[in-house]
Predict the structure.
Amino acid sequence: MTLEQLAAQSGVAADKIVAYTKAGLLPCKDEHATFSADDQYWLDMVNCFLENGSSVEDLKDLMPLCEQCAVS
């Protein structure tokens, strides 16, 4: 799906998704690429952490660990 489609489906603004992508918080590391359902899952997780008080800086360390665990 495109960035705009992901934004519409997730309710997260496209500029925030771009920022999260550039920060390395989503498996898709290029905001111009096609996003998958997995990216939407991770976006939902990032959004949940942020809504509950985590910072983007906190998530820069946490999300790669979560991705590693999900692949194992």
Q: What stands out?
A: DSSP finds four helices and no strands in the chain. The mean pLDDT is 89. The radius of gyration is 11 Å. The first helix runs from residue 3 to 10.
